[in-house]
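Subject: Protein record for review, amino acid sequence with backbone structure tokens
Why sent: The fold of this protein is of interest and is recorded here as tokens.
Enclosed: The protein record, placed directly beneath this head.
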Amino acid sequence: MDDSIIELRRYSDLLFTFNEPDSCAEFLKNIHDQKVFLIVTNTLADIILPLVHNLSQLDSVYILCKSKTIENNWTRDWRKVRKIFDDISFIFPQLQRNTRLCEESLMSVNIIGETSTINLNEIESSFMYTQLLKEIFIEMKHDEMAKQLFVDFLYNLYADNRILLNTVDEFKRTYEHHSPIWWYTKETFIYSMLNRALRTQDIDVLMKMAFFVRDLHKQIVQLHFETHHTTKIIVYRGQGMFNADFEKLKKSHGGLISFNNFLSTSTDELVSHFFADCSRSDPNLIGVLFEIEIDPMISSIPFASLDHISYYSTAEQEVLFSMHTIFRIGDMNEIENRLWKIKLTLTNDNDEQLKCLTDYIRREIGGGSHYHRLGWLMIKLNEYDKAEKIYTKLLETTAIDDWEICATFYNQLGIIYANKGEDNKALEFYDKAIKNYQKASSTHSGLYATYSNIALVYKCMGKYETALSMYKKAREIEEKIPLSKDSDWAVTHNNIASVYRLMGDFSNALSHHQTALEIRRKVLPPNHPSLGLSFNNLGVIYHSKGDYTTALANYREALEIYRKSLPTVHSRPAETYNNIGFVYDSMGDYSTALSYYQKALEIQEKSLPLIHPDLATTNRNMGCTYAAIGDYSTALEYFQKVLSIQKTALPSTHADLATTYNNIGFVYDSKNDYQIALEYYQKALDIQRKSLPSTHPDLAMTYKNIGGIHSSMKDYSKALSYYDKALEIEQITLSSSHSRLAATYSNIGVAYQHMGDYKTAMSNFLKALEIQRKSLSPTHPDLANVYNNMGVVQGSLGNYSIALLCYKKVLEIREKILPAVHLDLALIHLNIGVAHYRMKNYSTALLHFQKTFEIQEKIFSPTHSILADICDKIAMMYYLMENYSTALSHYQKSLNIRQKSFQSIDPEIAVNFYNIAKTFERLNQYREAVEYAQKAVDMTRLLFGCDHSEVKENQEYLDKLRQKL
């Protein structure tokens, strides 16, 4: 048996033996994402098969039995039993063949729907990956060293597996003695390693096997050339497909499908049908029998019959296609439950969609050497470490006086480091690129791209003035390039506009976006997606200005263009849906906002990788909206989703992680969990200090958040120290009319207001107001907030008429932009009511308090304490207007709410008892008054002890009431 185990390790390095059925079954149950082959003696098979046969991870069972006469019973009763063997050595070739077939059932596919519109974001990355790899491997030249590097890799990989090391030795000695197809079909380690690497996009392994891929492809081409097919051929392939892939395939009739690997098919339909049927044993798979028609008269795509060439000779009537062969999807029929037959046709040489697709990919990836194109693809696929290795190696092998090529590689390395968040290193490589381009030509087109890239880095660093100067340098180069296109000018204007927007200079931002739109209208058809992008950009600026109506109009214009020019699951409409949701969010229409975010999310989940930053953005938006409506647990769920995406896709010090920690901190801040909020804000600050310049605006935002926590904790001097840090940064990096500056002045004003320094508070509110009047629309909600703060200060100074003027402006703005049921409307009615109460205008105060209650009862639960507070104010107005019976009913309503929402002993409930006692006294109902006055005394005594002043006051009042009995 020891020799047999050694031989079995030829087919898998993962070999486990068991003496007990239960331990074997338990082991199998704990296997995930792998397939298992089980060899078992007939004496144990009766025990173990009922335990494991239905496990999806079990692929095949081989039974060792001295008598083969019972084979029919085993194979009839247990469908995963492949065969009965009386000698274990006979299992080896069967195991090798089935291992290979199991690998093929895991083969991944790419599916592209039937559409004339091609966009990189809509093409599965693996489609581009295998398409480009195929071209690169075919072009690459290899020498003996390429094979030696692969062999060295295998020696290291199988260091503990003597049988496989012997096989590697044989491969090294006799590779040229046999054909690549012979090796591909004979050695499981070659077949499995190659197809697994193609399936998982393991570029390191693929580069080591590149020589073999080229040789295998060349042999398929040679055999195809020698065969001279003249009639149509039908071949078959049976495999399992995951439900999601199969559903996509069903919806793509007439589209394209490619297999990421070398594709094995058979002219024997029964063999392929068997493999499709077997895949149904896994509940996660749909069995698919592909019927593939090949017309050699219209297609020159290579394929080869493996008769007399394969290690297995003619056993399976196998026909092999090279990697990434593309087929047209035809009719589909369900044969049985979860078993389908799908017709495919090999694409012809003049297939227009395929030609368009291939040209598009080559255009996107660019020209240059095969390694350069591979590096660019790695960047496109966010494989930055792999891209860095490729371009570093290219630089090492390029002459230093080949300035243009060196500059290109330096620029690519700059892009890589910028995407990794290493801004200073990115700038270092961009600088090298600039110097090399300038040596080649002072107007080299590469200078335009590199200056634009530098500007983008400075923009991300918050150095907006420097970013602007770099974009302007790019524009100067662009003006000197004879063949520069108008569409490039539009891109430059958009880039400049994006910086002005971040600086808060919305007028300049608007001007540049409008210029970009005018250029695109002249040179592009009316429904071109780039026009949609321009309208989207304009919408962002109008939203920032607080002009929500115009913002929505531009976003809808963008959507209409996208509807006519892009697929329904394109990422651009998703971005615009997000932006529309954000506008409704700003307007306080949270249900509509969430509906648009959900539309964006549905598109993104279908069209983007699960760790794409756009998915993080949408989940963040939804989290912020749920936080705004007070659903903090749901908000935290969404922010945790964002965090999960970012921790997978980004380095631990990336600034986007800090933004999410700030979001989570805000939720805990809103819940009054100040210590937890502070911890998250501190996490954000720690990341930003490591990853951002000391004057980045995002640092200022975090300082303001921390300042807000200290303000909530009534530590106003500490709050001011953080607000001052924020202000110092914003005065350096932002325009003097940026709305963020206004927000900081407003925060400072609130802190001074709480400290009783009303003069300084008012001074800061006026600074905020001056900025907002310059940069925002007259109905922007931030203006309303500042007017509200000014009203509170004037009220604190006793200037109630001035306070009311401020509150009137707040009400005018909020009634224009907010829905009728919005918390901010309730709050302004409350403030107006308080001002009228101070002026003894009780009836007017009552009207505003009642409006506050009407809004709040539609927002909050019936037992929310905020409703008790407003009931108290309404009761007090009736009391002051001597309508005591109505006052009493509202005080009792308030008490009822508090008794349901508070602890049974609470200071607010004690105050309720006292107010009810006073009201009963006014109604001359002294017995009831005494009852509630006694309750007030008892509760304050429990709360504060016998010597507290409030207890003494309540006792004195109780004694006075008793005298009236």
User: Anything to note?
Assistant: Residues 496 and 764 are 31 Å apart (CA to CA).
